[in-house]
From TrEMBL:
Class of the enzyme per the UniProt entry, highest EC level: hydrolase
Keywords recorded for this protein, A-Z: Hydrolase, mRNA processing, Nucleus, Protein phosphatase
Name the UniProt record assigns to this protein: RNA polymerase II subunit A C-terminal domain phosphatase SSU72
Pfam families in UniProt: Ssu72
GO annotation terms (biological process): mRNA 3'-end processing
Protein family membership: Belongs to the SSU72 phosphatase family.
Species per Swiss-Prot/TrEMBL record: Drosophila sechellia
UniProt keyword Hydrolase, yes or no: yes
Signal peptide as annotated in the record: none
Record's catalysed reaction(s): O-phospho-L-seryl-[protein] + H2O = L-seryl-[protein] + phosphate; O-phospho-L-threonyl-[protein] + H2O = L-threonyl-[protein] + phosphate
InterPro entries registered for this protein in UniProt: RNA_pol_II_suA (IPR006811)
Location of the protein in the cell: Nucleus
UniProt-recorded Gene Ontology molecular function terms: RNA polymerase II CTD heptapeptide repeat phosphatase activity
EC number: 3.1.3.16
UniProt lineage: Eukaryota, Metazoa, Ecdysozoa, Arthropoda, Hexapoda
Amino acid sequence: MTDLSKLAVAVVCSSNMNRSMEAHNFLAKKGFNVRSYGTGERVKLPGMAFDKPNVYEFGTKYEDIYRDLESKDKEFYTQNGLLHMLDRNRRIKKCPERFQDTKEQFDIIVTVEERVYDLVVLHMESMESVDNRPVHVLNVDVVDNAEDALMGAFVITDMINMMAKSTDLDNDIDELIQEFEERRKRVILHSVLFY
């Protein structure tokens, strides 16, 4: 597969804010056909107090979240990096999207933590079968902070680049995952599900 835009890729985290958006950004710049999502009930961002997160509905524009946090305390949310993150996000797409609400089909879905992986697999298994098209769901653990999200985006892009070179992904994927795990010293969860 040499045409990167033919491989449909989704990257999924909990709130479609940090890890999935950093990887979305990297993959899009490399020419991949990529979308990003969250699996949570709502979008949650750190607040001024640990027990008081900022909570938004999926579909709330990144621009509106940016303005809301800016009006609450511009200095605080600049220092903790949220305004920078939201600025990046609003240049990539309009708003956070929930994975369970999409009707799109993908060749590869990458999650960034086991809990999100489990939710994606559960959702896919609960769907009515459409055309038995396979989808590979992979998990690459990425800690939810700016630095690790950046490193995770490099790792995910590296893995997707490897897979994009395959002429028969369904047949080659186990070998590709093993090679990737050995080279990157990471454990990758993998399920094959069907649309």
